[in-house]
Specification:
With 1294 residues, the chain is mostly helical. It contains 51 helices and 14 strands.
Length: 1294
């Protein structure tokens, strides 16, 4: 039986075991092919894939992930081949499909190298693949693939890929053809043949647009010029035009031709109108775009008239005139236009003769432009007639003044001659008068004798009259007036006379009263500084006590911890504080002799730090913020004695200014950083000015109005709709005695739906405005009470930000100033007046919640107004106040502007570079040994950053000091018994010992140092004062040149002896340098010689001049007299201020002592309660309290993976570590020996990385302060609340 059955019968026959033909043998390969065709026809992709992958099919590799592709493509191929695919067809198709599948996979992963390799694969069978185009193929395929994916097609077929290859090949071919065409164009341009150029421009391969064959000549010219220009600019003679440049040349040429044709047509139309004397169309033609002129309709007649006159001036010679107009395009290309035929050309026409009787386009444009300019100028004169009259008046005035000055100059030039003439004439008249009078007297001798006797009698009677008491008073009054006039001359004249200065030189002497006042100021300043330091320490301890009692209430620490801290607090408040206030401060003499030199070196160091703010400013920013804050609170304010006098306030402000400018320049990248961040200097300035010295300006500024708000019991402000709603519901239930049907929990929107809530809210807003206005009046009217330091730093802040951000507006700068003056300085004191000494509080007293809410609402409104921030979003229900906020902001804006208008510290405090050299006493600071050592250590640690220059004075002083001493070596041998078992505690107590340092400069003028001009000037002034007091004269030069008389020498000797007696009584700290004392003992003539030597040195330095008889040094002495008077007034004012400050500090100390007593009473009550309840608790021998049944602290460690802690919410994230890696991090939490201490170790893949000590009390402190997230190991962010919960649960059973 022949086997000619259709192939489909193989599968049917073999499938039935009972078929009689199943004994025949069919090759496995054909059976597999039969199965494949069947699966393809059934459209089952999975079965098709299985059939294709059978080994019997002997087909190329099949990729399972592309089953759908095989099914689709093979099905289509099967339909094209009589529904059956033979083995060879399947083999070829599968091979190509597998290759295409892999190519699609590479396209999906955007693997360029794989794409190229698959394209090169010969099995894929792509045609026309060029090696140099592989990158283009890959890029285009990726683009097509991306577009297909966006349309839902995830697969590119073989045909898609082949079409892409053909398309790329075609694009490359077109590009090559275009490049060739561009080279042809450049060659044609170089040949200068317009026809050839046009032929190349019209090549279809180059694809240029808008090529007009009639413009061939102009194309040639424009493209040739463009090419020449490109060669010139690129300095390359072989440069060629690119395609876009050629297209631009064609566009420019077409534009030129169009403009030239319009201009020629317009010119022709204008001339035709002129010939026809038709003026009507002229204006319309000129206004058309053909001329591109700015035409004024009012000048229409003038245009026509001037154009007609110009045309009439043109000569008309019929024999020589032609029909052609010639135009020049862009001052380069000629254009010819036939006015009769309308023909145009770029080549001079044969027999070219211009039409000379017509106006050219240039002439028309010039005439029209001139008329328009004349009209505009005329209108300008009319519009500015008043200004012109003023200008003429100014010019005439100038000419008159010039004439007057010339005449005046002439007269001044002839002044000597005029004086001679006048003197001669006056002399003649006086001689003639004298001769006439003498002649009269000689003729009346007898009568003169009688008159003389009568006059003598009247003189005697007048003498007796002037001996009257009233006359003496009048004379005293006149002398006093003269003295006042002299003093006004001294302080007001630019160059006060020497005779006036001599009268007031005695004011420079120091009296016993001066010394007494200076000593009293020094004593009070010491008490104030010491009191401030003790109060600060006491306040810190009280705050810590607050926290500990709070933790005790939460049962987080034991009662014993609170009792121990209370004992320390009592000890400090009773013993240590008293010792700090009343105990004598140790100075240099208080230490051993061998340590005196080192302490003097520290005096020089602290003087340099105090007077040169750059060192401390740099040091602040070199330290971490927590350390810098502590450093500022202790050492810096101590170094400046809490600004207890003008000199130290001046220097402290200089430090603030320098540090603020440094911080803005180095750390502020955007102007808002000052607001959003917490700048160190701003924080320091605000903290200091809020009352660090006990001078609480905020109390004076805000206390009256805050007290008025708190005392108003009827005032109830609530701007929260939900709270107002709840209060209303509670009131309803109280009044009716029935449960309200209204829901209790509502949203803001739901609460505002009730009219009663809206009415109550409006009432609160009205009250809020009234109260806010009172606070505003208090603030705006009390600008003078605001500390000068705050206002000056606000000025520095504004100027520094303006310098760094010059584009910032005035509003932006004033908002930053407002953030400092209001938000940081005033706002906290309004919100919490009890925390800033604005109001007096008794120990344990608290502000009522209603009072607190009233103040908070006022502060919120003021905060929004100061920053010009309107009520929006969650506060939209307060939007009715937005107009009020805007108006208030304008008031705040003016307030901030005025606040910044303050003089510089030099002017405010009257301090200059000589101030330290002429003050009566040396500056003294009171500082502990521990603070000295810490400062020395910090300076050495950051020396390179603070003083990078090798020859810096700070480096020299630090080198002289050497290494940082410890307390024992600082005090010297014998200060502590080496066998003392409590040596460490003793040293710790001694480290807190305060000593007084009299600050001096190491680089003051020494004997014979004439280079120090400041010191030389001071010495010379002292010598000049000594000389002019005993020897009078009109000028200093005259006094120095005339020898002193014996009487003057004697008077000078008395002055020297009197000064020696006064110096012997002067305290050591207030004595002048030895060289000045020795100069004061010199005889007057030696002083004069020394003055002359010093003046020559000062003149060489340009400080004085002999040309004006050394008036400069006289002016400096006058300035010293004025400053001495001011200094005495300031000192008296400072005495009063220090006494007030000390009184305020003592009141504050009394309040703190009341607080200590209150805490003692509370702790005693706790202990008593503990004793009564000993049945439930027992006190151990170590004093710790143990709750019955409570679990003891587990000492076993806990281990958690970071993934587990992340699930619990304890770990939020770990920097540089993905969440899926948290399982590799292990945290080991082990309790320490002390209660509440934990050690946490971190391991990664079993390798220990880091460990950290954690104090449970610190966590509670952070929770108390509202800190929700903390960093651990500087990498892991931890939820503080959940960590506390975990530790409580696992270690405390809570």
């Amino acid at each position: 039986m022949p086997l000619h059955h259709p192939p489909t019968s193989f599968s049917a026959a073999n499938a039935d075991g009972k078929n009689p033909i199943n004994f025949l043998y069919f090759p496995p390969e054909l059976v597999a092919v039969d199965h494949i065709n069947t699966a393809i026809r059934n459209c089952d992709a999975n079965k098709t894939l299985v059939a294709l992958m059978k080994p019997e099919a002997q087909l190329p590799v099949v990729h399972p992930f592309a089953a759908a592709v095989y099914q689709t493509e093979l099905f289509n191929l099967q339909q094209q081949n009589a529904r059956y695919l033979a083995h060879d067809e399947l083999s070829i198709a599968v091979e190509m499909l597998s290759a295409v599948v892999l190519l699609n996979q590479a396209l999906g992963s955007k693997d360029i190298l794989a794409i190229k390799n698959h394209l090169r694969n010969p099995s894929v069978g792509f045609n026309n693949v060029e090696d140099e185009n592989f990158q283009r193929y890959a890029d285009t395929l990726l683009s097509i693939k991306s577009e297909a994916s966006s349309q839902g097609q995830d697969y590119l077929s073989w045909n898609d890929v082949q079409n892409c290859i053909d398309m790329v090949n075609m694009q490359v071919q077109e590009e090559n053809d275009r490049i060739v065409a561009v080279s042809y164009i450049n060659e044609a341009i170089d040949q200068g043949n317009p026809g050839k150029t046009l032929e190349t421009l019209l090549l279809p391969t180059v694809k240029l647009h808008d090529v007009n064959p009639t413009n061939a000549r102009h194309y040639q010219d424009v493209l040739h010029d463009a090419k020449v220009q490109k060669c010139k600019e690129s300095h390359d003679e072989s440069a060629v035009l690119w395609l876009d440049e050629i297209q631009k040349g064609i566009n420019d040429a077409n534009s030129n031709i169009e403009k030239a044709a319009n201009l020629a047509l317009g010119t022709s139309m204008i001339n035709n109108c002129l010939e026809k004397h038709d003026s009507q169309p002229v204006l319309d033609i000129l206004q058309s775009p053909k001329f591109g002129l700015r035409v004024v309709p009012e000048c229409a007649e003038t245009y026509y008239k001037n154009l007609l006159e110009a045309k009439n001036l043109k000569t008309k010679e019929d024999s020589s005139e032609g029909p052609w107009l010639k135009l020049i395009m862009k001052n380069r290309y000629d254009y010819y236009y036939n006015v009769e035929t309308g023909e145009s050309t770029f080549v001079p026409p044969e027999g070219f003769i211009p039409k000379t009787s017509w106006l050219t386009s240039e002439e028309i444009q010039t005439i029209v432009g001139q008329v328009t300019a004349d009209y505009n100028r005329e209108q300008l004169w009319f519009a500015n007639e008043n200004l012109i009259l003023q200008l003429q008046a100014l010019a005439r005035g100038f000419l008159v003044r010039k004439s007057y000055e010339e005449r005046k100059g002439f007269l001044q030039k002839q002044e000597p001659s005029v004086i001679k003439i006048q003197a001669s004439w006056k002399g003649y008249k006086q001689r003639k008068s004298y001769t006439d009078r003498l002649r009269v007297l000689q003729g009346n001798v007898a009568a003169i004798v009688k008159v003389s006797c009568s006059m003598l009698s009247k003189v005697f009677s007048l003498w007796s009259f002037f001996q009257n008491e009233e006359i003496v008073k009048i004379q005293a009054f006149l002398r006093a007036n003269k003295a006042r006039d002299d003093y006004r001359t001294l302080i007001g004249a630019e160059n006060p006379p020497l005779n006036v200065l001599r009268k007031f030189a005695y004011l420079l002497d120091q009296s016993d009263l001066d010394f007494q006042e200076e000593l009293e100021v020094t004593r009070l300043r010491e008490e104030v500084v010491t009191k401030i330091r003790s109060n600060q320490q006491l306040e810190k301890d009280l705050n810590l006590m607050d926290i500990k009692i709070g933790l005790l209430v939460k049962n987080r620490i034991s009662l014993q911890d609170v009792v121990l801290h209370s004992k320390k607090l009592n000890k400090k408040s009773k013993n240590q504080v008293e010792e700090m206030v009343t105990g004598d401060k140790q100075g240099i003499k208080g230490l051993s002799k061998e340590r005196r030199k080192q302490l003097e070196a520290y005096q020089h160091l602290f003087y340099l730090l105090q007077t040169n703010p750059m060192y401390l400013a740099k040091l602040i920013f070199q330290m971490p913020q927590n350390k810098s804050t502590k450093f500022m609170d202790t050492v810096i304010f101590t170094l400046y004695n809490y600004a207890s006098n003008q000199r130290e306030e001046y220097l402290l402000l200089k430090l603030f200014k320098t540090a603020l400018e440094e911080e803005i320049n180095s750390k502020v990248d955007q102007i808002q950083d000052i607001v959003t961040g917490n700048p160190t200097v701003i924080k320091m300035v605000v903290s200091f000015n809020r009352g660090a010295r006990g001078q609480n300006s905020l109390r004076q500024l805000l206390a009256p109005v805050v007290k008025e708000i708190m005392d108003d019991k009827s005032l109830l402000i609530n701007t929260s709709p939900v709270e107002v709603y709840k209060a209303w519901v509670n009131q309803l239930e109280t009044q009716t005695g029935e449960a309200s049907k209204l829901p209790y929990d509502v949203t803001t929107e739901q609460a505002l739906e009730h009219p009663e809530v809206v009415n109550r809210l409006e009432s609160s807003i009205q009250s809020l405005r009234t109260v806010t206005d009172k606070v505003l009046v208090s603030i705006f009217s009390s600008l003078s009470m605001m500390p000068y330091g705050m206002r000056y730093i606000a000025k520095v802040l504004k100027n520094s930000l303006h310098e760094k951000f010059p584009d910032a507006t005035e509003d932006e700068l004033l908002k930053i100033v407002g953030n400092l003056l209001y938000y940081r300085y005033m706002n906290p004191a309004i919100v919490a007046p009890d925390g800033f000494d604005i109001i007096d509080m008794t120990a344990g007293g608290q502000i009522h919640s209603d009072q607190r809410r009233n103040l908070g609402c006022v502060a919120k409104v003021l905060q929004h107004a100061a920053s010009n921030k309107l009520f929006e979003g969650e506060s939209a229900h307060l939007s009715s106040m937005n107009t009020y906020l805007s108006q208030t902001y304008q008031k705040f804006r003016n307030f901030f502007q005025i606040a910044c208008d303050v003089p510089e510290p030099e002017e405010k405090f009257n301090i200059d570079e000589y101030s330290d050299m002429v003050t009566l006493s040396k500056p003294v600071i009171y500082i502990s040994i521990e603070e000295i050592i810490n400062t020395h250590s910090l300076l050495l640690e950051h020396q390179d950053a603070i003083a990078p220059e090798q020859n810096d004075l700070l480096n020299e002083l630090l080198k002289g000091l050497g290494a940082v001493p410890d307390v024992e070596s600082f005090l010297g041998e014998g200060a502590v018994d080496p066998n003392d078992p409590n040596k460490e505690n003793t040293l710790s107590q001694l480290a807190k010992t305060e000593i007084s340092l009299s600050l001096t400069s190491k680089y003051e003028l020494q004997e014979g140092e004439d280079q120090d001009l400041k010191g030389l000037m001071i010495k010379t002034k002292r010598l000049v004062v000594d000389v002019i007091r005993t020897q009078p004269g009109d000028t200093l030069l005259e006094i120095l040149e005339i020898p002193a008389s014996a009487q003057q020498e004697s008077e000078h000797l008395k002055v020297v002896e009197k000064r020696a007696i006064l110096d012997s009584k002067t305290p050591e700290k207030m004595k002048h340098s030895q060289s000045m004392l020795e100069d004061g003992q010199l005889p007057i003539e030696q002083k004069k010689r020394k003055i002359q030597r010093n003046l020559r040195t000062l003149e060489q330095a340009g400080l004085v001049s002999s040309a004006n008889k050394y008036q400069e040094i006289i002016n400096e002495i006058a300035k010293d007299i004025r400053n001495q008077r001011r200094y005495r007034h300031h000192r008296k004012a400072e005495l009063v201020k220090l006494q007030q400050t000390l009184s305020a500090l003592q009141s504050k100390t009394a309040f703190y002592e009341d607080q200590v007593n209150y805490y003692n009473t509370y702790i005693k009550t706790c202990l008593d309660n503990l004793t009564r309840k000993n049945s439930r608790r027992s006190i151990k021998l170590d004093g710790k309290v143990e709750e019955k049944g409570s679990k003891k602290l587990k000492h076993t460690s806990l281990k958690y993976t970071a993934a587990r802690l992340h699930e619990k919410g304890v770990i939020l994230e770990i920097e540089d570590l993905q969440t899926n890696q948290f399982k590799n991090v292990m945290f080991d939490i082990t309790p320490g020996e002390e209660m509440g201490d934990f050690e946490i170790k971190a391991k990664f893949l079993g390798v220990q990385m880091e460990k950290v000590e954690l104090h449970f009390q610190d966590l509670l402190q952070m929770q108390y302060e509202g800190v929700a997230v903390m960093k651990m190991f500087d990498k892991a962010k931890v939820n503080v609340n959940l960590l506390i919960f975990l530790l409580n649960k696992k270690f405390y059973g809570k």
